[in-house]
Design a protein that fits this description.
It is a single chain. The protein is an alpha+beta fold. It has 2 domains: 14-158, 2-Layer Sandwich (Fructose-1,6-Bisphosphatase, Chain A, domain 1); 166-279, D-Maltodextrin-Binding Protein, domain 2 (3-Layer(aba) Sandwich), CATH 3.40.190.80. Helices cover 37% and strands 25% of the residues. The protein has helices at residues 14-26, 29-36, 55-71, 80-86, 107-111, 183-196, 206-214, 228-240, 254-257, 265-279; strands at 44-48, 51-54, 76-79, 98-105, 118-125, 128-136, 141-146, 151-153, 156-158, 170-173, 199-201, 220-223, 243-246, 260-264. It has a 7-stranded mixed sheet, with helices on both faces. Strands 11-10-12-14-13 form a 5-stranded mixed sheet, with helices on both faces. The chain has a two-stranded antiparallel ribbon with strand order 1-2. Helix 1 packs antiparallel against helix 3, helix 6 (183-196) packs across helix 10 (265-279) and helix 7 packs parallel to helix 8.
């Protein structure tokens, strides 16, 4: 058979990966809803200062990874609880694809009976973030996106807000709780936004904060001290919803640095005018 006659390999489309991300994020939903109804029996362990894990986190992660491993056995997986245990990602068969998973974003809320938590699943390739899903099992809302395909909430297109004036903006944040080395800088940014915006919210699940920003419920979001699994899916939602995502000083390495500033394009620059001097040299 000549090269001309050889069968061509068809790569999966971004939308097919988006469908897989949605399915993976939905897999722990029933478990999380059921266990959330009675949190008194949770077995709670500490991974570090103010950083908790339960058997529900681990079981939820098993459900997500089980699905992804079954469907994409050669893909790598970076998942929060597995990484906490081994300090490494799960290797695949040499594929450049990597899934980034937070099986229960908002564990502290979950433990205390606060109904603000989510499952976050993202996929990246050599070109960056490719597909994402953030699932809120309490409200049965699925936020999802793929590169070049737009962002959606339960199948309906969503967009970042077009608010441009910070005085009209409702923004969200997360308080540093692991590393306090940048606490003073964070507090400077918090005061700056407190003085110049319509309000600040802190709900305790970064993936949902980003999803809410992608659909215009919030106008912007900033936080530092995060991990890739906190950010990856939500960042793609923002980008595909027409927004902008950077580090708090303006760089593009938010997945590596764990710091993020996300907003609609009309507001992002004004937010950066607050965070850049607060966190800069």
């Amino acid at each position: 058979m000549s090269d001309h006659d050889a069968p061509k390999t068809t790569l999966p489309s971004p939308s097919s990966f988006e469908e897989a991300a949605r399915e993976a994020a939905r897999r722990p939903g029933e478990l999380l809803r059921r266990r959330f109804r009675d949190t008194s029996r949770l077995q709670i362990e500490s991974k570090g200062l103010r950083d908790f894990v339960t058997e529900v986190d681990r079981e939820a992660e098993d459900r997500v990874i089980g699905y992804l491993r079954g469907r994409f056995p050669d893909h790598r997986v970076l998942a929060e609880e597995s990484y906490a245990k081994t300090g490494d990602e799960m290797k695949g068969g040499g594929s450049t694809y990597r899934w980034i998973v937070d099986p229960l974003d908002g564990t502290t809320n979950f433990i205390h009976g606060v109904p603000v938590f989510a499952v976050s699943v993202a996929l990246e390739d050599d070109s960056g973030l490719l597909a994402a899903a953030v699932y809120d099992p309490v409200h049965d809302e699925m936020f999802h996106a793929c590169r070049g395909g737009g962002a959606r909430l339960d199948g309906e297109p969503i967009h970042c807000s077009d608010v441009a004036d910070p005085n009209d903006a409702l923004i969200a944040t997360g308080f540093p709780f692991r590393d306090f080395s940048r606490a003073a800088a964070y507090l400077r940014s918090f005061e700056g936004f407190m003085r110049t915006t319509a309000g600040i919210r802190r709900a305790g699940a970064a993936s949902l904060d980003l999803a809410f920003t992608a659909c215009g419920r919030y106008d912007g979001f900033w936080e530092v001290g995060l991990h890739p699994w906190d950010l990856a899916a939500g960042a793609l939602l923002i980008l595909e919803a027409g927004g902008r995502v950077t580090e708090v000083v303006g760089g593009d390495g938010f997945l590596e640095s764990g710091e993020i500033l996300a907003a609609g394009t009309a507001l992002h620059g004004a937010m950066l005018e607050v965070t850049r001097p607060a966190f800069g040299p």
